[in-house]
Write a structure and sequence with these properties.
Oligomer: single chain
Distance between the termini: 106 Å
Structural class: alpha/beta
Shape: globular
Number of helices: 15
Radius of gyration: 31 Å
Largest sheet: 6 strands, mixed
Strand order of the largest sheet: 5-6-8-9-11-10
Amino acid sequence: MTLALCLVLSSFSLAFADKQARPVAAPNAVTATILHTNEFHGNLEPAGSNPGAARVASVIEGVRSDPAAGTVVLVDAGDMMQGSLLSNLFHGESTIDVYNQMGYEVATFGNHEFDWGQTVLAERVGEASFPFVSANIVQNDTGDCATAGWTSPAWATPWTTVTVGSGADTAVVGFIGVTSQETPYITIASATENLCFKDPAESIVHHYDDLAAAADVIVVLSHLGYPDGGYGYGLVVYGDQTLAQKLIDAGKPADLIIGGHSHTNLAAATVIGPTTITQAYYAGRRVGKATLTIDPVAATVDIAWTPLVVDPAGAEDPDILAAVAGWADDPWYQEQINRVVGYTNVDIVRNYDGDSLMGAFVNDALYNDLNTDDEPLNDADIVFNNAGGLRTDIVIPPDATLPYTLTHGILYSVLPFGNQTIVGTLTGAQILDLLNQSATLFKGALQVSGARYSFYRYTDALPNGAPWAWGAFDIQVKNPDTGFFEPLDMDREYRVATNEFLAPAGQDGFVPFKYMTDISYWGDMLDGVERWVAEAYPITSPYMGVRDGRINRVGTDSGGPIVPVTLLFHADSHGNLLQSGTYPGLSQLATLIKQERQHNPDRTLLLNAGDTIQGDAMSYFFKSAGLGYSADGTALDPALQIQ
């Protein structure tokens, strides 16, 4: 009997060995405070309206010092590392170190956590003194994300718990994370290789019972965004409000959703049923404060939320200020950011939706670097870069002397992602498809070197906007032998250089890059740009570029010399003159036609594709109206005789 009992007890212990122990329910209500940030983007140092980590820490310490706050738990909803020079050059190591010293306890992954690839991400997670949670990032263990299992990558865990309160009065807060399903489409393809991003609500539901058994309160750290729709890639993705409702409908509600991804500046929390939804702006400009009153016995939690404004001129925490200074004063970092590359006498600024001096500066440098080295395999007819890949302007300070020094730090801030240069083959027809997509301005105008093009984009301002017209035309490619520009040949194959975000994955909606052939890789794009800048723009010959009209937008969203023609057509009305069931009838059809004609009144054509007459009884009855009588031979009144 004793042995048998021992075996039973041992089995029980093993079964629960890796489940986090849950304290005995508190006899009294427990007060706890969750402080949260999102989209910090490595803004360790103050800059403009971004207050810097030391001021964020000062606000946090102010809450921690208040006895009424109870246990204070500090968490982050993703995109913490990528975004500033001090963080980027260290691939986020500096941000993780400062986060450790600030006392973060849980975080989830944002899409930008993958910008440097999974190897670097695993290193950063290993350096963190807090876990990263994400329930919907799993290993692609079947080769098909539709059938992938629930195994997390080694550097992630679906959920974790934090005990709050003291003595006998304790409660457990469970944190579960979800990350945007768009992540594979908004990072370089290799960064999410062999990973699947499952449906967020389904992922939470999968783990919900285990988490609920271990926790009194369920908090979702979400990097989905506040609204639905994500970045607009055509994926059916939803935000935190829909997530809350989906969990409620599944009978697995969250108590609190702490959001990120959309940089939403909420003045008050959104409440859907039992779920409170929050987000705290970005770049440390706000710290979200959720005050929880937990009654584990009654299984209730009351949540009060407010955003704490971080004053960009406010007090700085001395310890965090010193920690940031330690990274900023690092000799290697100082050497890197101050290394001289070249010189300029002009500001080099971006234009997301058109001709851009920054686009010309970067693309021309890469075009010249590829075409003047000793390697013919990387020669390129055209260089393309997406507007969103150029991350900042170069503006000469008013008190600077000319020529202005272009350092590695300045150029790194323009191209911080470490993308490799890709050279491959596209046909002229595929290039036209690319530039037609560019003309939609869905993700800005493709920046170019070695070619020039015009485009048109028109969006009707009337309600139910139509027509929406766009397209590229007058595309010309430079002949390297003559220096003249020649019309794009639809059948010719061109060698095209771009970055590894665009090709071969076709990100940002530029799908034709998926069909690029004969692809080769030629190192970090920034290295190529810097080689040419160093050679072409020394102190004796600084950059003096001007916009040259290589990207020519014709007209505006509201008009221009190109006016679209609207074609309206219908077919197979089969004589259904009157509304019946799901048939709208010709009167409703006429209303719709009139509505659409308002958008383009002088250039709308109405077409019909047949099977218009034969169908219902009224149409049949009047089929002989042109002869003066109905189908049964009855003479018609002259008013009904169709002439």
